[in-house]
């Protein structure tokens, strides 16, 4: 059985373009309908319960987040679409929800759809949309939580509780203030760009640290940072100057 999909897009040309792509290149999906504004989208979701929604972030009558807030349930997967590197992208990234930048690439569309279909067919409990709305509504990005998928489920971890990250081949270990260690099947590079805007620093090829959790900076023995959990993290020679500048700013 095919997965029912809804396209929410207020621009006619963009709506028709995505509709044609879905019909021609996404055989797993059945396009159940389209909506051009927030009200139409909410009515369709509450009436027909589509399994997958392509959701435009910015519409003339509101935003994709308005749709999520007004819908009676979140029993669906979402792929956001936007023409901008939007301010909301940070919240979307932390929640591990997919998005597509316009003009939409066929390759990226097929990849996002494949991931959504896998999630739907897995029938696992999924609270990522709730986390997304929580992140989006917060006044400070410092309060963001990040979605970490493990073999046992999904953990939603506030950024402020993460002390450091360690690379282990294709995996990354998150060290949390409560003593937990969470291993995820993504490499450290995938978190670097997202977290560096929120006080994290790639101090070494194998380590990324929360600068607010640096307890001591030792310049001898090649240089290392002592973290709040007493871990000693080596400073790469290439990163010393940048680390020194960042720590100096923190002390001002």
Summed up:
With 252 residues, the protein is an alpha/beta fold.
Give a verbal description of the structure.
It is a single chain. The protein is of the alpha/beta class. Helix content is 33%, strand content 33%. It folds into two domains: 3-135, Rossmann fold, CATH 3.40.50; 138-251, OB fold (Dihydrolipoamide Acetyltransferase, E2P). It has helices spanning 12-25, 38-48, 64-70, 89-94, 106-122, 128-137, 189-195, 240-251; strands at residues 3-8, 29-35, 52-56, 58-59, 62-63, 77-82, 98-101, 145-150, 153-158, 162-168, 171-176, 181-184, 200-204, 207-210, 214-218, 224-227, 232-234. Helix 2 (38-48) packs across helix 3. It is elongated.
Major sheet size, sense and barrel closure: 5 strands, parallel
Helices, by number, come to 8
Beta percentage is 25-35%
Shape type? elongated
- The overall number of domains is 2
Please trace the helix and strand order, writing H or E for each element: EHEHEEEHEHEHHEEEEEHEEEEEH
The CATH topology of the largest domain is Rossmann fold
Structural class: alpha/beta
Uncertain regions: pLDDT < 50 for 5+ in a row?
A: none
Radius of gyration: 21 Å
Helix content range of the residues, please?
25-40%
CATH class of the largest domain: Alpha Beta
CATH architecture of the largest domain: 3-Layer(aba) Sandwich
Strand order of the largest sheet: 2-1-3-6-7
Number of strands: 17
Pfam families: LytTR, Response_reg
Domain Response regulatory: 4-117
Modified residues (4-aspartylphosphate): 56
Keywords: Phosphoprotein
């Amino acid at each position: 059985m095919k997965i029912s999909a809804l396209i929410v897009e207020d621009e006619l040309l963009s709506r028709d373009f995505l509709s044609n792509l879905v019909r021609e290149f996404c055989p797993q999906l059945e396009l159940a309908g389209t909506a051009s504004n927030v009200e139409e989208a909410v009515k369709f979701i509450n009436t027909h319960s589509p399994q997958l929604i392509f959701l435009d972030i910015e519409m003339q009558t509101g935003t994709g987040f308005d749709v999520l807030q007004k819908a009676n349930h979140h029993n669906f997967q979402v792929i956001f679409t936007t023409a901008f590197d939007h301010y909301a992208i940070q919240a979307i990234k932390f929640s591990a929800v997919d998005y597509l930048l316009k003009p939409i690439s066929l390759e990226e569309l097929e990849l996002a759809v494949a991931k959504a279909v896998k999630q739907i067919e897995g029938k696992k409990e999924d609270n990522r949309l709730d986390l997304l709305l929580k992140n989006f509504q917060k006044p400070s990005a410092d309060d963001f939580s990040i979605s970490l998928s493990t073999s046992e489920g999904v953990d939603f971890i506030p950024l402020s509780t993460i002390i450091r990250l360690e690379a282990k081949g294709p995996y990354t270990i998150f060290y949390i203030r409560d003593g937990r260690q969470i291993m995820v099947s993504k490499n450290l590079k995938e978190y670097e760009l997202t977290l560096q805007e929120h006080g994290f620093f790639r101090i070494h090829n194998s380590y990324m640290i929360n600068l607010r959790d640096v307890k001591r900076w030792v310049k001898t023995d090649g240089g290392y940072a002592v973290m709040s959990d007493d871990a000693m993290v080596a400073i790469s020679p290439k990163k010393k100057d940048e680390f020194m500048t960042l720590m100096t700013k923190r002390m001002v």
